[in-house]
Design brief:
The structure is a homodimer of 346-residue chains.
Chain A: H1 4-20, H2 26-32, H3 39-51, E1 55-56, E2 65-66, H4 68-78, H5 86-96, H6 102-117, E3 120-124, E4 133-142, E5 145-152, E6 157-163, H7 170-184, H8 189-201, H9 203-206, H10 211-229, E7 233-236, H11 240-243, H12 253-261, H13 263-271, E8 279-283, E9 295-304, E10 307-316, H14 321-344
Helix pairs in contact in A: 1-3, 1-4, 2-3, 5-6, 5-14, 6-14, 8-10
The structure holds a DNA duplex (30 and 30 nucleotides).
Chain lengths: 346, 346
DNA sequence: AATTGGCACTCCAGTCATGCGAGTGCCAGA
DNA sequence: TCTGGCACTCGCATGACTGGAGTGCCAATT
């Protein structure tokens, strides 16, 4: 069994290794940390830690390096998430100070977070599945093109083009608008999709005038609602990976690809399990199912108008977990506060 | 002076070096290419090429490598842009086959291009500065939030939130809509911005009812028009850079950063000078002002509803210029044709 | 004048031997 | 349970050596 001091040794190893990228030896530990025991004692502890697979030696008789499991124990039991410096706090508020619409706020958030941590920053959009449709607007552009705009009460807006054969006069357009209104406004995104499906199958509607065009428009609305249902991400800081390349045994290719694909990261972020503080970490090999076995993700939940979502950072397994945890927590809190203010000012 | 055969030697060096990444020596040239002369003769030619700074030796008595200037001569005089294989052609049309709105088509284009070349693909949006405003739409969302939608006759749509103090009744809203309509509809983006500026200074308007709110809305419209005026990009394939890392003496950091920033690449693409076929290349050190001295960009103009824009690829200086030129040309032609069809079907 | 074979020379890249130092593992003693 | 001591293991840097690829140049040939 690993002793209390053994865990402190693990902490020291993680901290020093993250600091220096050098495997850390027993002598270095007694020099840099005030353990009050000799190097030989530390060595005994290290042997225990190695038995538990918390640290490993890259080569026989070289310093030790934390394993993924070691990082996990460090994060779960040893990392004290220390609050940010005041400089960092002002950095956050200067980035996020001004209000704006959701896209705007999240775009600034993600930049603030990559700035703060020097890692790839990820901000998940709040889920809109439970949001309600508040407006459906049609704008006729001529030539059979119709702009279909859908707005939810959480402030999300989507616009998309529908191609209908002919243009309509105002009366017909009004009728279609009215139909969409009764069909969708006030309904949740989920309900709306269901009602659209019903509508498209309904025999009664089939015979309605302008049915072909109306159906085309309704289908476009369904696409837009479906997009609301899917979660979305914004990311920034992919260039920082080039700086950290030495920390990846393989290449940074999988990370860059995941960043471009988005969907992998979306799934990964979705599956992470947060602790009671809303913080979560997924370390190294734990991300193997996503092809990101050399990366770690640290994330924090935030609240946005009733639904939860996450902000996080992604980087090499050898990262400064306490700082990154502190940063995502601070940003998530700030974001929650901002979005609440926004809500209450409506 | 470099002889005709000397240029063929340069071509051989460029081709072999791009192929193998090994500096190429005189012996390798006579083996791989049927010059019908001896290695010693090639050596004499190579000495000339070196005097002209078209090739260089990484170390004394090692093979030769093309210089940036050498690539330039190769691209200008030696590269025959051979047509794509039929497999590649079908790949393009299967990617780009279906019609859709502009965002959609360009998104698929950029993916097709990165697929085709294995490089970072860049597609510039057509410039909308000369486009005309065709619709301005206001959607009241309640709580003093107003969605402002602007549409141009080139099919570009922008939506943005304005924060006005209070909500309006339909009559007032109608008045504001009408004012925006007479102010902007049918005007070019450029004119529209000017007219907005005039409107905001006009003494007459100052005293109008709901002036504060109207002014807020007009300012939001101005932001949207301004966004139209700025060129935009879509990119894909940044992950491919991780694969080509060995081709960058320094790191890929500047490239990744440029991709994230976008504006650098926008300027670079804008300043490239196309030949009579609409093709352009910017090679290595020529990109130094943009911090991309180890990268090359190959681009082709395309036509979109009256305005020109570019598609291109970015990669290491050591790239397969003929293939990439062929790919961007083919994609640009395809894109032009698609957008024209789209236009004529309106 | 252009081309060629020959030859001396350069320099890279790989291999091997060597020594040093950091670090470990283990043991006997406190 | 901790400690000092000691033998041992490797990694890594250094330096010497060598083979080979490639050049540059020159005199001879066409």
């Amino acid at each position: 069994m690993v002793s209390e001091r053994g865990l402190q040794v693990l902490r020291a190893i993680v901290e020093d290794y993250v600091d220096t990228r050098e495997p850390v030896g027993s002598k270095a530990i007694v020099e840099r940390h005030a353990f009050g025991v000799s190097a030989a004692t530390i060595r005994n502890d290290m042997a225990l830690l190695e038995d538990e697979d918390l640290i490993a030696a890259p080569h026989t008789s070289s310093g030790r390096v934390p394993t993924d499991k070691g990082y996990r124990v460090f994060v779960d039991h040893l990392a004290d998430v220390r609050p940010l410096s005041s400089a960092q706090r002002t950095a956050i508020s200067s980035f996020l100070g001004d209000p704006g619409d959701l896209d705007d706020v999240l775009a600034r958030t993600v930049r603030a977070l990559t700035q703060l941590t020097g890692q790839v920053a990820i901000v998940q959009y709040p889920s809109f599945a439970r949001a309600n449709v508040s407006h459906v607007e049609l704008v006729q552009l001529g030539g059979g093109r119709m702009l279909v705009i859908v707005v939810t009460d959480t402030g999300r807006v989507s616009q998309r083009m529908a191609f209908v054969r002919d243009d309509f006069d105002d009366a017909d357009l009004g009728r279609i608008r009215a139909e969409l209104g009764t069909l969708l406004v006030g309904r949740s995104v989920r309900d709306g999709l269901q009602r659209i499906a019903d509508r498209l199958e309904s025999a009664a509607a089939m015979t309605a005038p302008h049915e072909a065009a109306t159906a085309a428009i309704v289908r476009v609305v369904a696409e837009e609602l479906d997009e609301f249902r899917q979660d979305r991400l914004v990311m920034a800081g992919s260039a920082t990976l080039a700086r950290r390349e030495a920390d990846f045994r393989g290449s940074i290719y999988p990370l860059l690809e995941a960043i471009e694909e988005q969907v992998t990261i979306l799934r990964l972020m979705g599956e992470m399990v947060a602790d009671e503080n809303g913080l979560a970490a997924s370390i190294g090999r734990e991300n193997e199912p996503f092809g990101l076995a050399e990366a770690s993700v640290v994330a924090s939940d935030y609240d946005a108008t009733g639904s939860r979502a996450r902000v996080g950072v992604m980087g090499p397994t050898r990262m400064d977990y306490p700082s990154n945890l502190a940063a995502v927590r601070a940003v998530a809190r700030y974001l929650t506060r901002m979005l609440e203010e926004d809500e209450s000012s409506r």
